[in-house]
Write a structure and sequence with these properties.
Ribosomal Protein S5, domain 2; formyl-coa transferase, domain 3; Heat Shock Protein 90; nine-stranded mixed sheet; alpha+beta; ATP binding; about 625 residues; 20 helices; ATP hydrolysis activity; ATP-dependent DNA damage sensor activity; hydrolase; five-stranded mixed sheet
């Protein structure tokens, strides 16, 4: 077949295959155009999941009548001058509208502030109609009907109406977080409406918008982030470790206001939370990166969801460092959803045992609780009173049953006064004063306005782990010399990268040196690892350095060993603790970063406010 020039329609349909994957992609492009036009209000209407109809209306600057034909021509844009490295708008390629018009029926109706009337233009399957007068308020309305009618094969790859509507809703929410001063509404054919009222473009306003999108629980369980390094600024919020999710869908990242899904940012978030979350749990985050547009390439893919940083190591290091510092500096806090789950369990009609569901991020442990054979307090061997049977000689009121509640000899008035004074001081602390130990594993403590229940094993496990980790990384890790050096063959570039990080690796107990052009010799390995697959370890490190320019793989292995040692060396369940020991444990928790969760990501304590307890008894 001879070489020939493709038609303009065919070129646009090829571009549409990259830019317009599904209805949500159309909504994304049109909403971004509205925001670039200075809109303060954006309304989206869909039907049939967006395949039948998408209508986006804004109150932006509008498009002059004489420019409407250019607006739907390929590579025509008002957002890019001569420097492609200085992109300060969401759109810039000039591909979206002609791509949509090549596969759907598209119409644009617009009016500028200076215009006496509006004008309208249409394009259907790549065929453009003439510009004609229309009636409209200031702004632009873009209507897309019968998406992919010109390329019916694409319709076979679409999901159901509900799935497409959900994808569209997620796109609108993701964009809305970055523009809190803009009002967004989304209405579907199922009469469901998403309304996001405008707030302000301030830290408080941004957090209020985040709460609109992610739920009212997030602000109460969030930690603010504000850090900078070498011209890169990071701001936003992260969740406390005990407030997590089973997937990463609620991790929002923005680069210069642009929503992105970048694996470097996702990996940095995962690495920053590695010590406080299990591998199958994910933090909830909203992070805004601001940097010179010339140091980030947003033109990696036509969909503009991927970016490439000039200095990825700097960006990753900033994210990991800022999150870890914020977690370390944050005072110990329990997720509010833990108390909500407890409240739900106590309400009339609730199941005898109601473990918190996915809202508080611990659903993954339900199976373990069920496997333990726990069937509820009414049948538990640890129930406070034996409620089986009846009559005066049974039902938990026999003398031998009541003997368990014997308070023992009375304490003198002077001794009680001294105890009360010490306890009063502890009531003002975060975790309060220990009052009791129940089921030989749970410490019940009291603060001035709440009741706190602490899992003693989980809490001490975190304390021991942090102590081991600090000892591990405060000095060089002990190493063991191999009798014969292990030679690992690698590509030349991987061997060079490992050699550049040899000093850091030596600090973690791994001694390597170059061995010819395409190999390294491993002479020492960390003693803590024992017998290990040196070949695999070195190759994993080489892959990580190539991706992220870090050696976290080795550090992660050492930390996991420290976590295992902490688990076996901590206070076990079933050990009776004296009041002094319980209070000492509470004070250590308050002074230790990350002690709100154990090494496996489970909460170490739950706080129930006095107001909530009073509601249970009908006092409020």
């Amino acid at each position: 077949m001879p070489i020939r020039q493709l038609s303009e329609t065919m070129i646009n349909q090829i571009a549409a295959g990259e830019v317009i994957e599904r209805p949500a992609s159309v909504v994304k492009e049109l909403v971004e155009n509205a925001l670039d036009a200075g809109a303060s209000r954006v309304e989206i209407v869909t039907a049939g999941g967006g395949l039948n109809l998408i209508r986006v209306t804004d109150d932006g600057f509008g498009i002059p009548e004489q420019e409407l034909a250019l607006a739907i021509a390929r590579h025509c844009t008002s957002k890019l001058a001569d420097n492609i490295h200085d992109i300060r708008s969401l759109g810039f390629r000039g591909e979206a509208l002609p791509s949509i018009g090549s596969v759907a029926r598209l119409s644009i109706r617009s009016r500028t502030a200076a215009g006496d009337s509006a004008a309208e233009i249409g394009i259907e399957g790549g065929r453009m109609s003439a510009v004609k007068p229309a009636a409209a308020n200031r702004g632009t309305t873009v209507e897309v009907r019968d998406l992919f009618f010109a390329t019916p094969a694409r319709l076979k790859f679409m999901k159901g109406e509900r799935a497409e509507s959900s994808a569209t809703s997620n796109v609108v929410k993701r964009i809305a977080i970055a523009f809190p001063a803009v009002r967004f509404t989304l209405a579907g054919s199922d009469r469901s409406t998403l309304e996001l009222p405008a707030t302000t473009d301030s830290p408080e306003g941004r957090l209020a918008r985040v709460a609109q999108v992610m739920g009212a629980d997030f602000p109460a369980n969030a930690i603010a982030i504000d850090a900078g390094r070498e011209g890169v600024r990071l701001a936003g919020h992260i969740s406390i470790p005990s407030f997590s999710r089973a997937n990463a869908l609620q991790q929002y990242a923005y680069v210069n206001g642009r929503p992105v899904r970048d694996k470097l940012i996702a990996g940095a978030i995962r690495g920053a939370f590695a010590d406080v979350l299990p591998r199958d749990r994910h933090a909830v985050t909203v992070l805004f990166l601001t940097l010179d547009p010339g140091t980030v390439d947003v033109n990696v893919h036509p969909a503009k969801a991927d970016v490439r940083f000039r200095d990825p190591g700097l960006v990753r290091g900033l994210i990991v460092g800022a999150i870890r510092e914020a977690l370390a500096n944050a005072s110990i806090r329990a997720a509010t959803t833990g108390a909500a789950g407890m409240m739900a369990a106590f309400r009339p009609g609730a199941a005898s045992y109601a473990h918190p569901g996915p809202a508080n991020g611990h659903r993954s442990y339900d199976a373990a609780y069920r496997a333990s054979g726990f069937t509820g307090f009414d049948r538990s061997a640890q129930r406070p009173l034996d409620m089986e049977g009846g009559g005066s000689g049974s039902g938990g009121f026999r003398e031998n049953d009541q003997a368990a509640f014997d308070a023992g000899p009375l304490v003198s008035a002077d001794a009680r006064a001294g105890q009360d004074k010490a306890a009063e001081t502890l009531l003002g602390t975060v975790l309060g004063a220990a009052r009791a130990q129940v089921h030989e594993n749970y410490i019940v403590a009291q603060t001035r306005d709440s009741l706190v229940i602490v899992d003693q094993h989980a809490a001490h496990e975190r304390l021991v782990y942090e102590a081991l980790k600090n000892a591990l990384h405060s000095r060089a890790v002990p190493s063991q010399m191999l009798l014969l050096p292990e030679i690992v063959d690698l590509p030349e570039e991987d061997a060079e990268r490992l050699a550049m990080h040899s000093e850091t690796l030596a600090r973690f107990g791994l001694g390597i040196e170059r061995f010819g052009p395409g190999a390294v010799a491993v002479r020492e390995t960390p003693s803590m690892l024992g017998e290990t697959n040196v070949q695999q370890l070195v190759r994993d490190l080489a892959d990580e350095i190539a991706d992220n320019d870090t050696v976290e793989t080795l550090k992660g292995r050492l930390d996991r060993i420290a976590a295992t040692m902490a688990c076996h060396g901590s206070v076990r369940s079933g050990r009776l603790l004296k009041a002094e020991e319980m209070n000492a444990l509470l004070r250590q928790m308050e002074a230790t970063p990350g002690s709100g969760t154990c090494n496996h990501g489970r909460p170490t304590y739950i706080e129930l406010k006095l107001a909530d307890i009073e509601r249970l008894f009908g006092r409020r």
